[in-house]
Specification:
single chain
Length: 89
């Protein structure tokens, strides 16, 4: 890992905003501490997992993120609600 990657990892891990980054298939690649607190999941159970497995009530229609991945278009001014795999959020 180069310096820039390590620096980005440190920043994302410690920022107060929840960050959940997925790849083009919807698999989690970054999940920071703030997001752990927001969603009630640990990064160890989220990294590498698909959004559909983590949040079973979401699909390309109900998820702003999955919709954006599928269409390539941003989901502007849409309110997103969801439950995690434990049924909470």
């Amino acid at each position: 890992m180069n310096f820039e990657q390590k620096l980005l990892e440190i920043i994302l891990s410690n920022i107060d905003e929840g960050i959940h980054v997925v790849d083009s298939e919807g698999n989690t690649v970054i999940y920071n501490k703030a997001m752990e607190q927001i969603e009630g999941l640990n990064s160890s159970e989220v990294i590498g997992k698909n959004l559909k497995d983590l949040f079973p009530n979401l699909n390309e229609t109900t998820s702003t993120l999955l919709s954006a991945l599928k269409t390539g278009q941003p989901a502007l001014e849409r309110y997103q609600t969801y439950l995690n795999k434990r049924g909470t959020i």
